[in-house]
Specification:
The structure holds 2 protein chains of 2 kinds. Chain A is an alpha/beta fold. In chain A, 36% of the residues lie in helices and 17% in strands. Chain A has helices spanning 2-11, 17-26, 38-48, 81-92, 110-114, 127-140, 171-174, 187-190, 195-213, 249-254, 272-278, 307-313, 331-342, 353-362; strands spanning 28-32, 52-56, 97-101, 119-122, 144-150, 153-159, 222-227, 232-237, 269-270, 284-288, 303-304, 321-325, 347-350. The chains are: A alpha/beta, B alpha+beta. Chain A binds chain B through residues 33, 35-38, 123-127, 130, 147-151, 153-155, 174-175, 177, 179, 183-187, 190, 192, 197, 223, 225, 234-239, 241-243, 266, and chain B through 6, 8-10, 13, 44, 46, 48, 50, 53-55, 57, 69, 71-77.
């Protein structure tokens, strides 16, 4: 009865009611990132009575966080974000079960953790984390609310809602390849006005609530962008990009998302047809960078040097044009960058990897 | 009539303006070649393209009055 009083102002809404409240009570949401986006999203979702919320962030609170992460105070500086968020949210609504993860999401732990939730809220501030969330959610068929900000602009969408007749739209349909470190500025470098992640993070919470309660129309299939300076929004209708290669679970766990040692070189990606021509040329060296246990074995590579061993083997590569291949064509781009950074050679990557290659050969 | 180009996020660092109007180009491919000449930073930038707020993936015919958006990824939080 006490909870009827707590939620009465949303339960009297047409279209929400007791079914809406029950749906939120059943919902399990993982919020990755307890910063400018994650704090407001968490507060509203706890207030609304979501049954179970996981919160994840490796960082401790610093003074420069407090202009936009209003969940925290000066006395919290130096304390883990998830620890403070956990106790504050317990005070706000003790009926919400909160799981605290005081570490970063990685491609090693992502599937185990995300598996336990119905939806992920991406409140992270860097590309590796955004691509890890996207790829893990695609593998596990979990929806996620995407949010991001830069200076005075924000982006918001809902991805990976299972569809009856096709695969679901995901972040890689918009941006197939992760930008290199330094290619796009982070908030730390570019700056951000505190209210902007407040607005976008709050809208992310609203999208999650709409998803679980069936209220209104979600943003699935649309990218919403907001410009704080003009108070204008701009929406783009999205569609599935047939050129996007989706990663599978074994490759996901081997992928080096935090790739730290690559150059800014652009690596040409070649099609299967171009690859078939290249393999006939004597001056081209085909390099397979898959790990040794990866299937299937192939007989057309000149060498197999697993990504995990590549750095120390680059000097031993011949003075030829190098074409790098892997399972999905993602690792091979990074491998090609590694090679280019150390050797003055022409390096290609097979787009779509062996998955594309074998699909093409069957057709 | 002409074509309106909108730049978002970090792309504005290279273009210095958030929108321009150009004469009609036959398709997105020739338009992008022109834009990359005008704003060399676009040559290495990551973005996707929308025509009249609909995302496109391939070279698309343009008509007078079209509005083209160049949308990069944002990563802050």
């Amino acid at each position: 009865m006490r909870n009827n009083e707590r939620y009465i102002r949303q339960m009297i809404l047409t279209g929400f009611g007791k079914p809406g409240q029950d749906a939120l009570q059943q919902a399990k949401i993982l919020i990755v990132g307890m910063g400018g986006l994650g704090c407001p999203a968490l507060q509203y979702l706890v207030g609304a009575g979501v049954g179970n919320i996981g919160i994840m962030d490796p960082d401790t609170i610093s003074l420069s966080n407090l202009h936009r992460q209003l969940l925290y105070g000066e006395s919290d500086i130096g304390t883990k974000k998830v620890e403070v968020a956990f106790s504050k949210m317990n005070q706000l609504n003790p009926d919400v079960m909160i799981d605290a993860y005081p570490f970063a999401l990685t491609n090693k732990n992502a599937t185990n953790i995300i598996q336990q939730y119905d939806l992920v809220l991406d409140a992270t501030d860097n590309f590796p984390a955004k691509y890890i969330i996207n790829d893990a959610c695609v593998i596990l068929h979990k929806p996620f609310v995407y949010g991001a900000v830069t200076r005075y602009e924000g982006q918001l969408s809902l991805f990976n809602i299972p569809q009856p007749n096709s695969r679901s739209l995901n972040y890689r349909d918009l941006f197939p390849v992760m930008p290199l470190p330094g290619e796009i500025l982070t908030c730390e470098e570019a700056g951000v006005l505190g209210v902007l992640p407040g607005i976008i993070g709050t809208m992310q919470a609203a999208e999650a609530i709409k998803y679980f309660t069936g209220l209104g129309q979600t943003l699935y299939g649309r990218l919403f962008t907001y410009n704080l300076l003009t108070t204008r929004s701009f929406e783009i209708a999205l569609n599935i990009n047939d050129n996007t290669t989706l990663i599978d679970k074994p490759s996901f766990e081997l992928e080096d998302y935090e790739f730290s040692s690559h150059s800014m070189e652009d690596i040409p990606e070649i099609s299967v047809a171009e690859f078939n021509v290249l393999t006939l040329q004597p001056n081209v060296f085909i390099l397979d960078v898959r790990e040794r246990h990866e299937y299937p074995p192939i007989d057309f590579a000149d060498a197999q040097i697993p990504m995990s061993e590549l750095a120390s083997a680059i000097n031993g590569l011949p003075n030829k044009e190098i074409c790098v291949i892997c399972h999905q064509g993602i690792r091979s781009v990074y491998a090609a960058e590694l090679i280019k950074a150390q050797r003055n050679l022409t390096v290609y990557s097979l787009k779509g990897g062996l998955t594309a290659y074998f699909n093409q050969q069957i057709v | 009539m002409a074509i309106e180009i909108l730049f978002f996020g970090s792309l504005v660092d290279g273009t210095a303006v958030s929108s321009i109007t150009v004469e009609t180009f036959s398709d997105t491919h020739t338009l992008l070649k022109y834009l990359e000449q005008q704003y060399p930073s676009l040559q290495s930038a990551k973005y996707f393209i929308a025509i009249n707020q609909q995302m496109i993936q391939e070279n698309t015919t343009l008509v007078s009055g079209d509005s083209i958006a160049l949308m990069p990824p944002f990563s802050g939080g």
